[in-house]
Amino acid sequence: MLVNHHRTTKTIALVGLESSGKTTLFSRLTNYEIGRESNIKGSTYHIKSQTCAYYPQILLIDTPGFRGIDNQYETLLSTLLNFEHLIFVVRGTNFHSEINALRPLIDRWEKSFSIAVTFLDKMSAVSLKQLNFIINKYSLPITLIDGRYDYKRLTPSLLQNTYISLSAKSVLYSTHVDEISPADLCFDKKWIGPILSIIVLFLLFTIPVMVAYLLSSILQPLADKWIVQPFTSYMSNTIPLISALLSGNYGLFSLGVYSFVWAFPVVVLVTISTSLADETGLKDRITDTLDKPMRKIGLNGQDLIPFLTGFGCNVVAVYQTRLCSACTRKQCVSLISFGSACSYQIGATLSIFNTIHRPWLFLPYLIVLTSIGAIHNKIWTKNANQHDPFLKQRRVFLQRPTINGIMFRVKSVLKQFLTQAMPIFFIICLIATLLDSLSLLQLLSMAFKPILQLLNIPIDAATALAFSFIRKDGLLLLNENKGVLLSSLPNSTVFLLVYLGSTLSACFVTLWAIRSELGFKVALSIFGKQIITSILSTFLLFILFSL
Predict the structure, then answer these.
(1) Using an 8 Å Cβ cutoff, are 332 and 308 in contact?
(2) 452 φ/ψ angles, rounded to the nearest 5 degrees
(3) Which of 31, 75, 189, 265 is paired with 433 by a 20 to 30 Å CA distance?
């Protein structure tokens, strides 16, 4: 639902630390409408806007999780000054620490504001009594939030104009209530925690990917028979250029149907899986556990989710990096580009390994891909990012998921896929068709022949490598003639060929998304660094396999 700004008379923004319950409150107050997303000029921050479900004249803004005074703090503050009212969201279980973490914003805010205290059901009776006492005594604009409340009744207390004195602010900052930490889990154990987290993450993504692969394998023949083939036959009688654009090897319709059949199930199922982990709090516990290991390669725990989302769709993953820290976003995008095997890449790889009757090669392939991707990031990262001061405060409780909460997150990702990823894909289809018609793809394949000769790989594989630049499933050309070429090669050579085709470059759709998000210069830098790492690591693997 698009926001009609002409109907709104007041703009209110939600501000809080990560995992404070801010986005959950936004979803409740907007009746689970995802709204529209826009960027804050001059920064990597993105905000969501939507009209309040109970007061259509009010426009609600969901801002990114506050990370303290960083290099984009002033940009965020200047954006907040455009709004008329702020709702600071803090967890009741960490009231003192979170309200003081937000103090730089509160002190510089001169307009009306209110405070929403979440996780009320996790607070002790003593803490609730103490907090209610200061609310009543000093008339503080604090609203306690529990899932049992009717949000329609709750809304007025959060949205009303309230100004407080400096003395009242002093009371606010000095108020101490019991800090309640979530119970320790296996994830919090020193050695078991990281191992268990990796296993759970692996299951969260591999299970939906494999189910989606099986589903797409069933749907693909049906789509070919009932949709693609009849349309291709019909278009064969039209103008050749029009036929090529719509139903050729890279046609908008023929390849578009294939894209939808193979990518959409993966995106849906992976999104449901990650949304379930997000809604329960499991995702935050895992990412916090892996925060320290991730910092060794220039990232942090929060960057894991976009990277793993890339195993469904790289483009959606690039858009999800908007939630990353400004210090780590480029590195996370680089890791996605190199090490996240998208749904097309996974399908093509499984098909190739199956052709040579070695499907078990997929697991070592995935391990090598992600391991070298981590090394790639470590090598090209100039400075390690600093420790997150809010990491311990952000530790969340595990809770029951809600259908509405999961669907709110799923709708947001699917909207990105359908309105951002797919249009870029169609543009690339047009470009690929023109390149193919002008025989430029065949010319591009000539550039790969020297590399293949040094690796003792037949130059007949050059065309497949060239096609993989456009789409990762371009490697499927190796299956031509029932995989005669592959069958003549040893397992190690096939492995090298698949690895090189997977890592030499991100597909054009992903590169386009990187360019649109971070600019042409950054996209070109990531592209160049990836080529260097891919070629060098391929030759190192070649030497290792030759020993």
Answers:
(1) no
(2) -65, -35
(3) 265
**HEC string of 471-482?**
CHHHHHHHHHHH
Integer Cα distance of 376 and 386 in angstroms: 20
Q: Is there a contact between 287 and 302 (Cβ–Cβ < 8 Å)?
A: yes
Local structure of 38: helix, strand or coil = strand
3-state helix, strand, coil in the chain (%, to 5): 65, 5, 25
* The amino acid at 456: N
The angle, 0 to 180 degrees and rounded to 10, between the axes of the packed helices 22-29 and 151-159 is 110
Pairing of strands 85-91, 36-39: unpaired
pLDDT of residue 138: 86
Which DSSP category does 464 fall into? H
Pairing mode, strands 58-62 and 46-51: antiparallel
Dist. CA 220–CA 261, nearest whole Å? 6
How many Cβ atoms from other residues are within 10 Å of residue 141's Cβ?
Answer: 21
User: Is residue 460 within 8 Å of residue 485, measured between CB atoms?
Assistant: yes
Q: How large is the average pLDDT for residues 61-83?
A: 75
Token reading at 3: 């926001």
Tens-place pLDDT, residues 402-422: 888 888 888 877 887 777 767
* DSSP assigned state of 43: S
Give the integer Cα–Cα distance in Å for 330 and 287: 19
Question: What's the DSSP call for residue 85?
Answer: E
Longest pairwise C-alpha distance within the chain: 83
**Residues ≥6 apart with Cβ < 8 Å to 523:** 511, 514, 515
The per-residue pLDDT for 39 is: 59
**293 within 8 A of 308, measured Cβ to Cβ:** no
